[in-house]
Structure of dTDP-4-dehydrorhamnose 3,5-epimerase:
Amino acid sequence: MGKLKVITTKLQDVKIIEPAVFGDKRGFFTETYSDRDFKEAGIDFDFIQDNQSLSAEAGVLRGLHFQRGKAAQTKLIRVVTGAVLDVIVDVRAGSPTYGEWEGYIISESNHRQLLVPRGFAHGFVTLTDNVNFLYKCDNYYNAEADGGITFMDKDLNINWPIDYDQAMTSDKDAKQQTFKEFEQNNPFVYGEI
């Protein structure tokens, strides 16, 4: 067995990565990213930007976000403190899993990472206080290419573990378009991203 365990998910091209964790009475050590080990595991992206967010309380909901066109991003997500339910939606027209979503618990204790390919809308809700959320991107952020879908979308019917009226979210996320509105001008085509 290699240094990484790669788990295939229901969603096309999405992977859960479990790095080896070495622990004893002092705590633990893990190599969170090694370009060589990821490439040996078949995960070959040129990650060029690292991002971090802090959510101070449980119930913070961020998303669903994506970057359009040439600014589209593959993300490698992990949580350093706390826990989240990370939710992604396949928005690549023509994909075998188009319009489907899945949620994954990513936490400081399970050490899991989530590979989110280009063409997925992404969001998360914090399950604990003090969530430090980190992710690598294979493309730089571009404000003009920023887009999203409402986390409350009735057609997607995401099973968030929180009432919408109790979620702490940004004004921007509270006003995102519906999935049907997004479909009228969907910039993502499976196999062309």
Remarks:
- The mean pLDDT is 95.
